[in-house]
Amino acid sequence: MSGQPRFVSPFQRPQCLAAAAAAPAGKPTFTHPGKAILAGGIAGGIEICITFPTEYVKTQLQLDEKANPPKYKGVGDCVKQTVNSHGVRGLYRGLSSLLYGSIPKAAVRFGVFEFLSNKMRDESGKLDSKRGFFCGLSAGVAEAVVVVCPMETVKVKFIHDQTSANPKYRGFFHGVREIIRTEGLKGTYQGLTATVLKQGSNQAIRFYVMTSLRNWYKGDDPNKSINPLITGSFGAVAGAASVFGNTPLDVIKTRMQGLDAHKYKSTLDCAVKIMKHEGPKAFYKGTVPRLGRVCMDVAIVFIIYEEVVKILNVVWKTD
Predict the structure, then answer these.
(1) pLDDT given for residue 256 in this prediction
(2) What does pTM read for this prediction?
(3) Separation between Cα atoms, residue 205 and residue 226, nearest integer Å
(4) Given phi > 0 = left and psi -120 to 50 = alpha, else beta, which region is 118?
(5) CA of residue 67 relative to chain centroid, distance
């Protein structure tokens, strides 16, 4: 009898499958928030150095109001004028403010996401899409308040300052010092509401899409590894979804943080004035450069993040 195959009734199969899932080999793995913070910071720093020129062009186009009239005819013209006036280095004006902020921004984002998702995964280690959306939303709000709003305000002021006849900011620390001296700490928190809305929706959309795609790819095995190229492809799709979903909020945020922010009484007032004076198309200014940057940004960040976590799992035991 021992050599014959053992019959398992349909009523016994669920228990057998449950036992197999509970076996040590199938034990779900979770990313420690400490590893997420470190890996996120590294990924954020590398990514911004690669993609900043597209961020610069996007910001210039969003600040280029129709009423002035427009200074730039499009993406190519913006790049051409910037290089002609300031050289290639001009495309990196304001990089320091983003570099100093991108590391803690990504660290906060992934740290908060992993902390919350670890508590919301089911017994098999799976995080469903709705919970992924909530975790992403929370991560986006956290990074907006702690890092993104002051960082973005300084960055936008730096880039806008370059269009002046006599730029007044000589560097990152000088710029921060001048902003705080003349406007107080509040000067680095312009457009907070718009930033929270933008970052919250950004990360909610991105993590929702990433979670959905990962769950689809992994099927019933939450510990199934994903090739970096596939991770990058999923990240690019998530990035594109967030661009089409919240570029209007990004335009409003940029206007609220520019040197002409005093023209707007509030986030709502800014939105109303853009609609009144420039029309609905103005809410999608900078979409093309933002689409290129964000897709590349999200793809790079997720690839680097996942690979750094793999390395940390080897050298940093947290189980």
Answers:
(1) 85
(2) 0.74
(3) 21
(4) alpha
(5) 31
